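Task card 7
Instruction: Convert sequence to structure tokens.
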Amino acid sequence: MTHSPRFLALVDAARAEITETDPATVRQRMEAGEDMVLVDVREPDEWDRGHLPGAVAMPRGVLERDIEAAFPDPDAPLVLYCGGGYRSALAARALEQMGYANVRSMDGGWRAWTEAGYPTETD
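Output:
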């Protein structure tokens, strides 16, 4: 998929303000049993095709509306991911603007995770 220049500029601006992580680091944290919540911000049809083990589905379209009910602690360690790391960067920025202090966006998203051969699951 080719993204428009304005969309890419928006994502670049978000990335300048957030903290990103990568699939290898997320997997290491998972294997170490670190306290974190994986939040899949992709669309329901994407989720249905597979997701990271233990992840919670919260599509980008409802994230800001539903996040406080699901995770009221603004210090909750949240790792957001999407298909390629663009939507999750925008989502991380929005959550930081809402006062969430421990948010990461997984650069490369689902695509990078699966290309690395890391485990996935389906419901």
